[in-house]
User: Fold this.
Amino acid sequence: MSKIHIVSNRLPYSVNHDGKNFELIESVGGLATGLKSVYTRYNGKWIGWSGVNSDSIDEEQRAEIDLALEEKSCSAVYLSEKEILEYYEGFSNGTIWPLFHYFNQYVSYNANHWETYKNVNQLFANKVLEVCEDGDTVWIHDYQLLLVPEMIKKIKPKVTIGFFLHIPFPSFEVFRILPWRMELMNGMLGADLIGFHIYDYERHFISCVRRLLGYEVSFNQIHADDRIVIADAFPMGIDYQKFHEASTEIMHKTIQERSDLYKELEKYFLASPDRQLVLSIDRLDYTKGIPHRLRAFARFMEKYPEFRGKVTLIMLAVPSRNQVEEYQKLKSEVDELVGNINGSYGDINYSPIWYFYRSLPFDNLVELYNSSDVALITPVRDGMNLVAKEYVASRITHTGVLILSEMAGVAKEMGEAIIINPNNEDEIADALKQALTMPVEEQKARISNMQERIQRYSVFKWANDFVERIDKVKTVQNDFLAKKISSAVYANIKMKYKKAGKRAIFLDYDGTLTSFHKNPQNAIPNDELFDILNKLISDPQNIVTIISGRDRYTLEKWFKDVPINLICEHGVWLKKQGQEWDTITAVNNDWMPMIRPTLERFVDRTPGTFIEEKNYSLVWHYRKAEQDQSEIRANELKDELRGLTGNLNLEIMEGSKVIEVKNGGVNKGIAAMHFIKNEQLDFIMAIGDDWTDEFMFKELPNDAYTIKVGIKHTAAKYKVENVEAVRSFLKGLAD
Ligand code: ADQ
Assistant:
């Protein structure tokens, strides 16, 4: 069985090291638990940083740590103090983190940090390359390792790579700000499957791929140069049972068995039974909207004074990245706000806010989830937010209310929460009132619905889903590989070619013999192409035909010195060498004045597009236009045209960045068959790249060699990657 390896910035064990001795401490976080279930089941390794500063240990100590980690199937990357500072705190947390969370003002642009980020990503990739073999799968996590997929793929293309981003992927307008945007994009596209928490991030990523790299995308399949890459959404879950069971257990404990924290809470409740608790938990991070939340809580105290003395906000902030200046400033701001609010609304017996700046053991966390009437989770931007799910999972009585920011990925799944805009203090104040007075029946209905969903889609299901999807990506990719012309297939075609008495060869032009140009008039054949064609034509046994959607004047002009056959406008016009232009069906253009105004309207609305009028067709070109917009317009246009062309016997053809309307009853397949109908042929071959060529692939006899250029689905028997591959294939045949 092939293995699955996990790669993340941190290993699921941290190494506690006092300069002499060390111990391994297992991480009990949900992600670690979920992923451990994957790499242990599939016999893989977990590659990551152990948290040790490599400057502080010698070779011997490192070997000892490695050995201990080896027993846990972990393989450690070691980072020096400088690397930690520049790769982790610098580029990861000082550049990518703020930018991807839309905090442009905090983004640092430091070329040294970028260099170190690249180098450290290479260290991770090297470590992975040491442990993985062809056929294995590697699942890489998060924004610290965006370049690792490409680094692995380059060296070991037969390793399947999954990548999951735990934070938001920003819109193109934000992502484009980064000087290193291309490198990061290409880095990620080394993966075969790229996962995000929600569809919005996937959509942003795909739009960046289109705009920055110009790759075609159909649905969520990205047609990269040599591979299909799939982007998809996998909303991460939690270990639901763990929270639910721990909460049940805690509920059944006597007061004496409970923690000190709970005993304090109990005193508070006993003092006044109508008291209510609002809970907020996060890392102290500017993305979590903590100052906004505090101001909104003050607004609530102000607006609804009847709750003063009765409602307390327990605010838990886990210290985080406290070396970074923005985090230090945030800490001061939060300290000050808490002080102000407690000063303004508290008294000797009552503090509106209980503020804890520390991490808590799991049991305490569950106790808090269990005892709080409301969870107030208001990030200004958050990839997912697991605290929301943990709160819901811990509500074993099904009571409780979740107030949730619409800016958290989790809001997409939790429609039953009270959804707020974190910047709207008034709305949050009202939401608090609504939550604190919500009838129990309504609370139960809302919580139960959410519980059902997060129980089903746990972190284990999430991890399994991702792994299964990687397998499906392989199937899509293999569809291409299965048809790719191998050396054995090539040898066979060449042998049949040599033996054949008479041969017909149909070659599409744009995207097959030559690459696309923004301006189609610039896609002129070059000397290399003329050489190849002349070689093929010089063999009297060959009937070589260019079969294209182009108009006849252009092709005639370009190939006037080459004795080649031409089929133009998708089969409307045919010209055998030495003969005049001919057509196989009676076609007319009466329909053009009716259709043209529609196309003109689309040109007016879509900058960069234009109309080409061929003899028997009208074409709307959108290659030069802004990609996302023009694709939407193309769909609209097709839709409108379908309505208009119903009774006119017209065909709407979608080529590569063109929509063409032409007389029905003519296509490349019919034309090619017409061309060879009286010939005695031993070898037929057709090469083309877009779906107008599919007519040819379908119509030609079964024993024809039909070859698709590119990785899209096709009726052709074989595939080649690109124009260069077509040229070298034809050169090989003709030699
Ligand atoms: P985080 O930004 O860390 O994660 P979150 O998803 O809420 O945010 O996870 C926090 C975790 O820390 C929770 O499991 C919670 O129980 C724990 N925790 C919080 N406060 C604690 C405390 N005081 N003591 C102990 N434990 C505490 C990033 C992204 C998120 C994304 C996750 C997972 O920023 O958007 O949801 O990764 O992909």
Notes: The longest helix spans residues 459-483. Residues 29-31, 166-167, 236, 281, 283, 316, 318, 359-360, 365, 382-387, 390 surround adenosine-5'-diphosphate-glucose (CB under 6 Å). The first strand starts at residue 4 and ends at 10. The radius of gyration is 32 Å.
